[in-house]
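RECORD TYPE: inverse folding
INPUT: structure tokens
STRUCTURE:
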């Protein structure tokens, strides 16, 4: 069922439901059904999430986590439904993380970035990633033993650059990567892509394939064969854009299939492999404390992303403020609930209490899930905010136009938004963010600064609330922001596509010269 689930989630759920009914005491069967339901998007997605939550709540209450692997499933569902108490009942991260590493798993750590509270927590996350990477590398003989000690000698040929990701299709990764593949200097650079996507090619994948020198589509190909195939292209630099996300092959980077390997986009943290030489950053994202990165920085001078035409098109933007149309002020978020924390909700509630009559709008598929609503409203009620002030727009994939209903977006923290912040700005919605020391706490800092909106970045929870309340009370400023936002973006590095492409390829040439 686990193998077939991606192709036939409905069938997998039916099979696993029968297994649970036949073996009601089996924690393993319940965990597998919980995981499959949580991943199901067919028919009524909210009903699947609610069913997954009921299983997760029952197992957490019984302390029947099934060890680190089971805790991973339970924590994913409980985070999604904002159940902090049961999340904590699944175990301490300090106890769970070593178990995940022992099983060769690093993906669960992605969902734990937001649990960091202290510098020690952040350093521990780095070391857990490093421990996973060393375990992987111990079993793999690299194809290129070490990065070149001397500059590469490139004579009579173009610089060969690879991009590895299963998300080179209609996906947020392509929103940011497409400009590099469309606007490169073809006389100077030879671009090659590597995808392991297991679905059907869509129009974006077809477009990308037409823009690069080679598009290698290798679904289900073993890691070793992928590494050998990439190595045969004799790349100067290989960018991994997928990290440990679904259908990607992060472990391929442990083979060192290119002279130099760089991480970008797919994971807001060091991936863990010491054989990845660089991590793409900009002056805002790069942590001041070098201990918070494993790789050396591959630093661009301005922004680490740009808003290309794919995800940031001419979606209609309302000219008037939501407050004017709705008759009340609206804070909102489209960030994934796994990033939600108590400290973040403290700040959101304080901002709402300081803006009388304001409401908070969640634009997420989880907004139709009864458990999500109950838990969110209970958390706000604990902080003095009436549940009637919480609203939901439960959509998936058609969310962009709903930014027109939000006056100010409040970023999650410590794990901040990335794509969501860019989307909010593109739709004229100012975003308040809290900047922290680690990579995953600085993405919005980069986006806002590179849009000419650095004044929206806070460096303490108190400043975060103060900035949100001050901006909420300044309707003329918000109107000017909304009406001039796209022009402002285009006048700054975040919206200057050709500038970004030039910065990127100049940095590539410098890296190997």
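DESIGNED SEQUENCE:
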């Amino acid at each position: 069922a686990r193998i077939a689930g991606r192709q036939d989630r409905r069938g997998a759920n039916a099979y696993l439901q029968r297994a649970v009914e036949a073996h009601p005491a089996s924690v393993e069967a319940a965990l597998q059904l919980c995981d499959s339901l949580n991943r199901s998007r067919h028919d009524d997605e909210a009903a699947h999430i609610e069913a997954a939550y009921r299983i997760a709540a029952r197992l957490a209450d019984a302390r029947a986590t099934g060890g680190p692997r089971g805790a991973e499933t339970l924590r994913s569902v409980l985070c999604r439904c904002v159940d902090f108490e049961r999340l904590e009942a699944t175990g301490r991260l300090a106890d769970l993380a070593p178990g995940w590493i022992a099983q060769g798993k690093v993906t669960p750590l992605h969902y734990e970035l937001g649990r960091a509270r202290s510098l020690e927590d952040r350093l521990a996350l780095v070391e857990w990633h490093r421990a996973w990477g060393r375990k992987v590398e111990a079993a793999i003989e690299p194809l290129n033993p070490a990065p070149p000690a001397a500059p590469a000698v490139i004579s009579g040929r173009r610089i060969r650059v690879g991009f590895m990701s299963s998300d080179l299709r209609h996906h947020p990764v392509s929103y940011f990567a497409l400009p590099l593949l469309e606007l490169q200097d073809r006389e100077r650079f030879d671009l090659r892509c590597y995808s392991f996507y297991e679905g059907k090619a869509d129009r974006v994948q077809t477009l990308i394939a037409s823009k690069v020198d080679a598009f290698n589509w290798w679904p289900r190909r073993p890691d070793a064969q992928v590494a050998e195939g990439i190595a045969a292209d004799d790349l100067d630099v290989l960018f991994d854009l997928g990290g440990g996300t679904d259908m990607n092959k992060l472990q391929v980077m442990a083979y060192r299939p290119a002279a130099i390997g760089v991480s970008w986009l797919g994971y807001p943290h060091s991936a863990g492999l010491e054989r990845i030489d660089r991590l793409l950053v900009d002056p805002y994202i790069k942590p001041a404390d070098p201990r918070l990165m494993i790789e050396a920085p591959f630093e661009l001078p301005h922004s680490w992303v740009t808003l290309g035409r794919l995800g940031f098109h001419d979606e209609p933007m309302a000219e008037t403020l939501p407050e004017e149309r709705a008759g009340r002020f609206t804070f909102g978020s489209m960030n994934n609930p796994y990033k939600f924390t108590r400290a973040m909700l403290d700040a959101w509630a304080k901002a709402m209490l300081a803006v009388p009559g304001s409401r908070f709008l969640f634009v997420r598929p989880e907004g139709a899930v009864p458990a999500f609503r109950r838990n969110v409203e209970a958390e706000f009620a604990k902080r003095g905010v009436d549940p009637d002030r919480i609203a939901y727009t439960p959509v998936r994939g058609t969310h962009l136009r709903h930014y027109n209903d939000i006056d100010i977006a409040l970023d999650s923290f410590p794990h901040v938004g990335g794509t969501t912040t860019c989307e909010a700005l593109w739709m004229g919605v100012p975003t308040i963010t809290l900047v922290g020391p680690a990579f995953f706490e600085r993405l919005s800092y980069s986006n806002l600064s590179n849009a000419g909106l650095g004044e929206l970045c806070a460096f303490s929870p108190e400043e975060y609330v103060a900035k949100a309340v001050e901006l909420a009370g300044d309707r003329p400023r918000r109107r000017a922001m909304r009406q001039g936002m796209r022009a402002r973006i285009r006048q700054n590095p975040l919206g200057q596509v050709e500038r970004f492409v030039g910065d990127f390829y100049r940095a590539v040439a410098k890296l190997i010269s």
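NOTES: The chain has a mean pLDDT of 95.
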